[in-house]
Amino acid sequence: MKTISSLLVLVVVGLACSSEPTITKDMLDSGTLFDPSLYHPATYLVSKAIPSPTPEQARKPVIIACHGYSATTFEWDEFRSWSNGRTDFYLSQVLLGGHGRSYDEFKASTWHDWQAAIMDEYSQLEKAGYQNISLLGSSTSGALLLELVASGYFASHIKPRNLLLVDPIVIPSDKSLSLIGALGPMLGYIETKQSAAEDKVYYHFRPQETLQQLQNLLTVVRQDLEKGITFPTACALKVYKSKKDPAADPVSAVLIYQGTQTADGKRENVELIDSDLHVYTRLKLRDSVTAKDQQNQTATFTDIVSQIMR
């Protein structure tokens, strides 16, 4: 998920705008551009690349990497590049339902649709015989994965080894998202400030319907955390949280820490990262990237792999 501009600032402009955005063919929103995983699924999904693994392949760790709201598989491309050439684990980059296609398909999607793509890859890997699966989520996918645990999905499936969350969102930094139910229908959509290059991998326009879905998801997850979420047996959780996150309030990490526990009742790890970026592991197409940003990315990628190899 990228930063959402204040609804309070945009409402006056929104009232004067058309209910439908002006979309150019160079935007992901247009439907002329698609996420590459739709064209070449075997490049992105282990279930497609190796549908019938050998016993040795089936024992290797598999990471299912899931992106945030309005994003695409691009969000984890740098992790794939960093790990290129490694043969000790596999990586699946999942495209969330409704994402990476067109504005209209995004607009019509629900958070259940977004989540269904994760469940589909998990199920396909399980059916193929993979035994060591971990889930890696950024931003909104963090909430989707927490809800998956809270809903009891894994009670009837193989248990994941790890849930690894990068800048998960439970509380938005922009508190005006809570007003989307009242102001959304008047706005119709929100336009995001981003570069032309980012327009090809992130939706430029955010339909108010999807913002309402995001708000609904976060409400469900907050309620789940208040009740308490217990992770499946032998499943570990680690949260990597940017200290100054413009999209996901750092208190999100506190709520996750307080509201989750392992099967044996232990609290899990939260690592605060000295960063002011949201999804600090994605550095491509940023306006500026510091040496510290590069260090944070490399350290986190290294730690993610160390977690799944335990």
What secondary-structure arrangement, pairings included, does this model have?
Blueprint: H1 7-16, H2 36-39, H3 41-44, H4 46-49, H5 55-59, E1 62-66, H6 77-82, E2 90-94, H7 103-108, H8 111-128, E3 133-138, H9 140-150, E4 162-166, H10 180-187, E5 189-191, E6 205-207, H11 208-227, E7 229-230, E8 236-242, H12 251-259, E9 260-261, E10 269-273, H13 291-308
Parallel strand pairs: 1-2, 1-3, 3-4, 4-8, 7-9, 8-10
Antiparallel strand pairs: 5-6
Description of the molecule:
The chain is an alpha/beta fold and 310 residues long. The chain has one domain: Alpha/Beta hydrolase fold, catalytic domain (Rossmann fold). 40% of the residues lie in helices and 14% in strands. It has helices at 7-16, 36-39, 41-44, 46-49, 55-59, 77-82, 103-108, 111-128, 140-150, 180-187, 208-227, 251-259, 291-308; strands spanning 62-66, 90-94, 133-138, 162-166, 189-191, 205-207, 229-230, 236-242, 260-261, 269-273. Helix 1 packs parallel to helix 10 (180-187). The radius of gyration is 19 Å and the shape is globular. The model is unreliable at 5-17 (pLDDT under 50).
